[in-house]
Amino acid sequence: MTEQSPWPDLEGIAYGGDYNPEQWPREVWREDVALMRESGVNLVSVGIFSWALVETAEGVFDWSWLDELLDLLHANGVAVDLGTPTASPPAWFFATYPEARVISRDGTVMGFGARGMASHSSPAYRAAIVRYADALAARYAEHPAVVLWHVHNEYGVPVGEDYSPQSVAAFREWLADRYGDLDGLNRAWGTAFWGQHYTDWSHVGAPAAAPSTVNPAQRLDFQRFTDHQLRACFILERDAIRAHASQPVTTNFMANQSLTTDLWAWGREVDIVSDDHYLWAADEQAEIGLAIAADLSRSVGGGKPWILMEHSTSAVNWQPRNTAKRPGEMARNSLAHLARGADAILFFQWRASRSGAEKFHSAMLPHGGTSSRGWKEVVDLGAKLGRLGELRGSRVRSEVAVLWDFESFWAQDLEWRPSDDLSHAERIRAYYERLWLDGVTVDFALPGHDLSGYKLVVAPAQYLLSAADAENLTRYVEGGGTLLVSYFSGVVDETDSVHEGGYLAPLRTALGVRVEEFLPLREHQTGQVAFGEQRITGDVWQEHLVLEGAEVVGRYLEGPATDEESDAAAITRHRHGAGTGWYVSTRLDVAALRPVIDAVYADAGLAPSGRAEGLEVVTRHGADADYVVAINHRDEPAAIDVTGVDLLTGASADGAYTVPAGAVAVLRTGTDRA
Ligand code: GAL
Asked: Which residue minimizes the CA distance to atom 4 of ligand 1?
């Protein structure tokens, strides 16, 4: 096995995108490379969907066009991120191995003509992907253009779960591995209920569509299994590449936009984290969703620099209404990713396709050509990134962690939960948004991580929490940390079984409170809470809390919790060891969270830098300098207090510095070693 490089062998910040030139004649290739040079592009992803044009029949490879393309790119100073096209097997593959097609939960056999249709558990598929990855790496490991390997494309979409016979067989093996024997499985799935007790492994199946809701523990395990199978496919390809090549290997994640894979586990398998991020047009503050994706990408990679593998120059083509980016928006998006640790800014795709499913998707070189505003902004962004090379390798630091656990997402989002209005994603967004508006930079973390370096840990929705992880959170508080937990947390263990002792029981020591009963509200029902002198309004949810040492800092004034013979406690605070545990038992929106989180900041010894509306400021820390990236999302100028040099304009800042409307400033300042 060859030793892997930590980062692609490239100067400065990488800039470019997916390049699919097999759609075009050779004269267009020559124009492409000239325009790449003009725009400062130094890295393109090639071959991600090229299987049918390279392996033209089983075991028959035609490398001619790829040889020519890699040579051309290299001659023009453009490096290559070389893809394995295993997200889209050729027509001949499915004709030869029809059993490798995916079967959906309702029993539909997925047809050819799209992409992502192959079963992750099919022996024929697995043999084919290893053969391709091996042949590709053997041929190009030494090619001077190749600086990075790009395995597959977006594992888990469009197809994750597979209900085919080979997947069911593999699921049984996975379960036997996890539980040892059928007794273990029966216990974990609680099969004594609803008469589901198993007496033979061959009776155990995937949680296919059934007349009523399917056993939630079975469904959760099937999600874990699916994630495991997809990762096993990645590892097969990665290791086939590593046998020949020393360049780093990656695969493109979708951070918060697809929740089918557990990116904490994936982060350990890739040499570099890559992420694809697309704005949700319906989200009026899409820059906050972008920041979540970027922070999550950095966090699952352990804080190391990461690659923004895809985003869009303007509109996408797959949302209900695909809004175009406004002037300056593409640069703000790109530099916001960079601010949060991305050292490579890439797009889908280089040149807009004339045919096929994605012809209405924007591109670096749009249908409108080089006279378009879009192209001019692409050239301008290339020039900007060219001035930011010294940021490479600098790191983001955070004093606050927000818990993000994919397994808890999967479990919470199953059917028959106490209220349809419970949403894991919504709570994470609300708490994150509060922190974003307050100018607090956060990492994401798992409840089992070492959290001792953080002043504040926020658990917006930790429905599934193992006893061991709860113990870790309790120790964090004991050691002086501040923990803020929102409702519907600490409810079940790894098998989706309610904790002994009831809801929140594993956190009762840290929080000084437990939950006797959930009190979901009706649609549109609200409940006022007295918080100090203030009145704040919650909705969706209340709980009957039983105090076990915590003080009540917020009390329900209306709603079902006031009917109980209790303190009507809504928000509690508990000193435990050297730290403090906060609990919030109702849904507060971003505005209502403000007074609560201000009090939490005070306990945590945090003094958020400011609340300049629409101004996003993140600092990257380098060996010799710090870099303050200020992104002005507003239509008017914004001022920041900073001393240094704006690397984008060359201007000096001495105290107050103005960032023009819609612009970005990147200021080199002295180091802050604090
Ligand atoms: C990504 C995908 C790309 C392209 C893009 C369009 O999810 O990886 O191949 O389809 O979406 O937005």
From this structure: 348
pTM of the model: 0.98
SS3 37: helix
Q: How far is the CA of 278 from the centre of ligand 1 (A)?
A: 9
CA distance 8 to 74: 15
Q: For the domain covering 400-604, report its CATH number.
A: 3.40.50.880
What is the mean predicted confidence (pLDDT) over 204-232? Answer: 98
Asked if residue 310 has its Cβ within 6 Å of ligand 1, the reply is yes
CA atoms in the 13 A half-sphere facing the CB of 266: 35
| Ligand 1 centroid – CA 663 distance (Å) | 27
Regarding the beta carbon of 546 and ligand 1, being less than 6 Å apart is answered no
pLDDT number for residue 492: 98
What gap in Å lies between CA 639 and CA 660, rounded to an integer?
9
Q: Which residues contact 177 (CB under 8 A, 6 or more apart)?
A: none
Taking only the tens place, the pLDDT of each residue in 547-604 is 999 999 999 999 999 987 778 999 999 999 999 999 999 999 999 999 999 999 999 9
Identify the CATH homologous superfamily for domain 615-669. Answer: Golgi alpha-mannosidase II (2.60.40.1180)
Please tell me the predicted confidence (pLDDT) of residue 674. 45
Residue extent(s) of CATH 2.60.40.1180 domains in the chain:
615-669
On the question of pLDDT at 427 being above 90, the answer is: yes
- Structure token pair of residue 361: 């998707």
Instruction: State if residue 329 touches ligand 1 by the CB under 6 angstroms criterion.
Output: no
Q: Which of 161, 237, 310, 494 is catalytic?
A: 310
User: Which residue has its alpha carbon closest to ligand 1 atom 5?
Assistant: 348
- Cα 600 from Cα 55, distance rounded (Å): 59
Strand, helix or coil for residue 658: strand
User: Maximum distance among all alpha carbons in the chain?
Assistant: 80
Closest Cα partner for 220 from 157, 296, 158, 161?
161
Q: Is the CB of 278 under 6 A from ligand 1?
A: yes
Distance 276 CA to ligand 1 centre (A): 8
CATH 3.40.50.880 residue ranges for the chain = 400-604
pLDDT of residue 293: 98
CATH architecture of structural domain 14-161+246-392: Alpha-Beta Barrel (3.20)
- Percentage of the chain exceeding pLDDT 70: 99
Among protein residues, the one with the nearest Cα to ligand 1's atom 3 is 348
Whether the per-residue pLDDT at 663 is higher than 70: the answer is yes
Q: 185 C-alpha vs ligand 1 centroid, how far in Å?
A: 38
Looking from the CA of residue 252, the nearest atom of ligand 1 is: 8
Catalytic residue flag (residue 310): yes
Give 489-508 pLDDT, tens digit per residue.
999 999 999 999 999 999 99
**Would you state the pLDDT for residue 672?**
66
Mean pLDDT of all residues in 133-161? 97
